[in-house]
Each structure stands twice: as structure tokens, then as C-alpha cells.
Amino acid sequence: MSTFLFDEIVFGPVNSRRLGVSLGMNLLPVNRKICSFDCIYCECGLNGELGDKSGQMPTRTEVKTALKVKLQNMLKDGLKPDVITFAGNGEPTLHPDFSNVIDDTIELRDTFCPEARIAVLSNGSRLNKPNVVEALLKIDDNIQKLDSGLTETILRLDQPNYPFNLEKTIQQLKAFNGQLIIQTMFVAGEMNGVNIDNTTEADINSWLEALNEIQPEKVMIYTIERDTPYNSLKKVPLEKLHEIAKIAKEKGFAVSVSG
Ligand code: SF4
Questions:
Q1: Topology at the third CATH level for domain 10-258
Q2: Which residues line ligand 1 (CB under 6 A)?
Q3: Residue burial 47-63, b: 16+ Cβ < 10 Å; e: rest
Q4: From residue 1, how far is each of 11, 43, 147, 226, 237 by CA, in Å?
Q5: Fewest CB within 10 A of the end CB: N or C in the chain?
Q6: Choice from 26, 155, 158 to test ligand 1 binding pocket (greatest atom count within 8 A of CB)
């Protein structure tokens, strides 16, 4: 139950089970979550649950300065990140200057740690914005969420706060022409008496069909690691994740599993 907010623009470095030594970027306010989804497993809590509603997103200049200072300090200590990861207290592409922030980050990465990758973890809700898509095409790891191939499961798990259209989302993901990674959170248990499980045969079959349309360069599957807003949610066993990965690999997808 004890979800948390990131209290800095640049946080870490942390050892990410999926990405390596990761320097985190939070383009959302440091004291509240802002997201176009409200996933029932969100480690930042449910929308509006934590924090101070007056919190503002940092400006482009504040983000650039914070990242520059952090990279300079890391270099002084003989450290370099493997990856600079945009995640934080919500959906990073909601930042009004997202594409310029990405340009600044590429410039700083090239100056201070040219081997580091730049990753964005996104829920795909802003792929109707050409400048967001262009920015995502400039980075190394464009990681987009797709938790099921069934609309009803996504509505239950991810609770988008806009009129979500799965077919449109799949077409937007397909338009990256393979320059993307799909991330899928598998979760089980129940929420307010409703059964939660996106590992059903119907979910997996439709998810595989969606992957077949999208043709991502890689698929990352994982399960909950930290506290979630509902403590009735459960991790999906590692064996089950490997079973799902095996089926996806047989269909020709490169899959990584984090349990
Ligand atoms: S998309 Fe990410 S930040 Fe937004 S609610 Fe879901 S898990 Fe939380």
C-alpha cells in the first residue's frame, strides 16, 4: 500500500532490473503524480492520492540544469549511467516541452556519457502528437506500454482517463516501424471484488495478435515488484512469465522477463 513519489527531477542512479545502472528523469512535479492512465498497480499510487495538487512540472531549463549537474557530479565520482530513463511521477510525454527536453538530453548525453542509452517509459497516450513521436524516434529505447490485446482488460488495469481506442493505439505503435520496445505488466489477484488477471488465454492470444501487428524490436514482460495501491494484487509467478515468454519467442519475438 505504501506507494511513493520521486522527489527530484533527476534521481538515482538506481540499479534497474530491466535497464542496468539507470539515471531517472522525472518531468512531472516532484510532489504529485500526473498521468493519462491510472494503473491499478502504479507504484506512484492512484491519481490524486498522494502529494500536493499545486505541484508544477519543471521547466525545460530546470530539467537541463539538473541533468547537467548530476552528470558532472557522477563523472567526478568516476561513475557513468548505462541509461538515462524518463519515467518518474507519471507519463513523461505529457510535459509540454517533451521534445525539446529530449533534444537537450541527447546533447548532454553526447557531451558527458556518449555510451549511455536514453530510454522513455511511456503509456502511448500522446502518440497523436507528431512532435512526441519524432522525439521518441530520436532516442535509443522507446518503451511503450501494452498490457493486453483486449480493450476491457486495459480499461480495468490501466484506467485511461481519455477515450481509449485499442485499435488506434496499435496502429500508432505500428507506425514506429519496429523502432520500439513493448512493455507488458502481468498482474493477478483482485480489486474491489473484481478478478484481475491479464494472463488468461484470451488476453495472451489477443496480445500476441497485437504484437504481430506492431512488430516491436523487443518485448519486456514483468510483474509487480514494489507496493501497489491495492494490496490484493499479486505477482504473477516467474514460471508463468517464462511460459508466456516462450510462446512469444516461438512467434519470433525477442522477449526479456523480469520477475
Ligand atoms: S502509465 Fe505508468 S505512471 Fe501512469 S498510472 Fe500507469 S504505471 Fe503509473
A1: TIM Barrel (3.20.20)
A2: 35, 37-39, 42, 44, 90-91, 123
A3: beebbeeeeebbebeeb
A4: 22, 9, 22, 9, 20
A5: N
A6: 158
pTM of the model: 0.95
d(CA 84, CA 160): 26
Q: What is the pLDDT of residues 5-48, one digit of tens each?
A: 888 999 999 887 777 889 999 999 998 999 999 999 999 999 98
- Identity at 61, one-letter amino acid code: T
Q: Whose CA is nearest to atom 7 of ligand 1?
A: 42
> What's the confidence (pLDDT) of residue 211?
98
Which stretches does DSSP call E strand in the chain?
10-16, 20-25, 83-86, 117-122, 141-145, 181-191, 194-197, 218-223, 233-235, 255-258
How far apart are the CA of 38 and the centre of ligand 1, in A?
Answer: 6
